[in-house]
Write a structure and sequence with these properties.
The protein has 109 residues and is α+β, with helices and mostly antiparallel strands. It is 43% helix and 14% strand. The protein has a domain of 76 residues. It has three helices and three strands, in the order αβαββα. It has a three-stranded antiparallel sheet with strand order 1-3-2, covered by helices on one side.
Length: 109
């Protein structure tokens, strides 16, 4: 799949206040995930999940150890979601690792 990014910058468009160099810095600092869904049932579920992630991120879960990807855009017509890529492990993996560590520490006591 080829994705083309179209942006307006302050140097060339009155509708933007962001200089090209700053825009490039912002884009490179983010990992961006683009997901296109082909099944309507899965689309409704993904669209709902995106709404929930936005609400969770608004409550300070967009940074730190436990965080969710920030929704960047939704194209309902193309059934495409654009979100921030989050480095690290899913919360379920982290929680499972914490449980295993606690169990190990109990056995050592």
């Amino acid at each position: 799949m080829l994705i083309e990014m179209h942006c307006h910058t302050a140097e060339h468009s009155a509708c933007s206040s962001v200089p090209a160099v700053e825009l490039l810095r912002r884009v490179l600092a983010r990992r961006i995930v683009i997901r296109t869904i082909t099944n309507m049932k899965k689309w409704k579920s993904a669209e709902r999940a995106e709404t929930i992630m936005a609400a969770v991120a608004d409550h300070q879960f967009n940074a730190g150890r436990f965080r969710v990807p920030l929704p960047i855009g939704i194209d309902a017509e193309q059934m495409t979601l654009i979100e921030q890529g989050v480095r690290g492990k899913p919360v379920a993996c982290v929680v499972e690792a914490e449980r295993a560590l606690l169990q190990y520490e109990r056995c050592q006591s």
